[in-house]
Amino acid sequence: MPEENGIVVYVSLLQQVPLLSLRIGCVELMKTFLYPRLPYASEILAACAASHAELQFWAQSVNRALALLEKPS
């Protein structure tokens, strides 16, 4: 377990990820995680990468669609 300053850094790294991506990534990580230790932040971030990219794609798509709807004909 990281010490006090380590926990602050650990949590601050994970706060950059949207909650839905973090949840999906953690579930995927736990399906294959074999070691009895706290996963490294880099392992969690790697597990969240695919869902985070997918969420960003959908957010961009929705923003483009809204921009087209707001554009006068």
| Total count of strands | 0
Apparent shape: elongated
Tally of structural domains: 1
Q: Helical content, roughly? A: over 70%
| Uncertain residue segments | none
Q: Tally the helices: what do you get?
A: 3
What is the strand content?
under 5%
Radius of gyration: 17 Å
* Intertermini distance: 59 Å
Order of helices and strands: HHH
Oligomer: single chain
- What's the pLDDT, averaged over the residues? 90
Major beta sheet summary: none
Architecture blueprint of SSEs:
Blueprint: H1 4-14, H2 19-32, H3 41-70
Question: If you had to describe this structure to a student in words, what would you say it looks like?
Answer:
The protein is mainly α and 73 residues long. The chain has helices at residues 4-14, 19-32, 41-70. It is elongated. The mean pLDDT is 90. It has one domain.
Q: What would the keywords be for this entry?
A:
73 residues, mainly alpha, 75% helix, 0% strand, elongated
Brief description of this entry?
The protein has 73 residues and is mostly helical.
